[in-house]
Design brief:
By secondary structure, this protein is of the alpha/beta class. About 40% of the residues lie in helices and about 15% in strands. It starts with 5 loop residues before the first strand and ends in an 18-residue tail after the last helix.
């Protein structure tokens, strides 16, 4: 049994609160990285069509020896700006992802970006509800959606996303969006939970708290996510760091430390603004 706590999604599906992400991992390295993660104890794996490593991820899952029902696999639709997205196009892309993964179903399927300037995310979401009804995705959700995007798909489809995966770390704590998600029973999931190695782990406050607990700065930040009730998907291809990121369950941050980390929020995005992003 995994020691990772789970979050119950709004449709009753259980999702591990700590997962393993494979963003920027080449396909020929993904199999080894995912194999290492599963051996370490991770049971949730997060990939995406645009990562171009679904095949490598699927190979590791097949070779893991872990029963499929014990794993939680997420992938995402890359709703490219080059496409006019129809229902059939969405279903075709989903089939392609399943084929690359070598799976009969995924546990979670996400719209990767709202691409709000084109406003086709509602029709895409309606196709997602068909996928969920078929049982080939145990849960469906979105990524990088702001509150107005969420309101619109809920109002126009009657179906609330199970998860909203967004950029989230101490320097972009997303308090208002997390509150909106919670109000609508949408689980919040953090991508780049460690700030992409761009200075967050050297911030004196984080370093001091790490020293206090005899932990690494990365472990402190991941523990912060868990105590906020956020799902986190750190990524590394270094086995020692994969293990380090998993070792975050034997301690708790006190209220003073949580407050000190909260004070680091400066609304600092490392990725695109979801209201403006419309790249290919």
């Amino acid at each position: 049994m995994s020691k990772v706590p789970s979050i119950t999604l709004n449709n009753g599906v259980e999702m591990p609160q700590l997962g393993f992400g494979v963003w920027q991992v080449p396909d020929d390295e993904a199999a080894q990285a995912v194999e290492t993660a599963i051996e370490t104890g991770y049971r949730s794996i997060d990939t995406a069509a645009v990562y171009e490593n679904e095949a490598g991820t699927g190979k590791a899952i097949a070779a893991s020896g872990v029963a499929r029902e014990e794993l939680f696999v997420t992938t995402k639709l890359w709703n490219s700006a080059n496409e006019t997205w129809t229902r059939d196009g969405v279903l075709r892309e989903f089939d392609a992802s399943l084929s690359k993964l070598g799976l009969d179903y995924v546990d979670l399927y996400l719209i990767h970006w709202p691409r709000a300037v084109r406003e086709d995310y509602v029709s895409i979401w309606k196709a997602f509800t068909e996928i969920a009804e078929s049982g080939r995705a145990k849960a469906i959700g979105v990524s990088n959606f702001q509150a107005p995007h969420l309101r619109r798909i809920i109002d126009e489809s009657g179906v609330t996303p199970a998860v909203n995966q967004v950029e989230l770390h101490p320097q972009l704590a997303q308090a208002e969006l997390r509150a909106f998600n919670a109000e609508h029973s949408i689980a919040t999931e953090a991508w780049s939970p460690l700030g992409q190695g761009k200075g967050l782990l050297e911030v004196p406050t984080i370093v001091a708290i790490a020293r206090k607990y005899g932990k690494t700065p990365a472990q402190i930040v991941l523990r912060w996510h868990l105590q906020l009730g956020v799902i986190a998907i750190p990524k590394s291809v270094t086995p020692s760091r994969v293990a380090e990121n998993f070792d975050v369950f034997g301690f708790e941050l006190d209220a003073e430390d949580i407050a000190a980390i909260a004070a680091l929020d400066e609304g600092k995005r490392l990725g695109p603004d979801p209201d403006e992003f419309d790249a290919n």
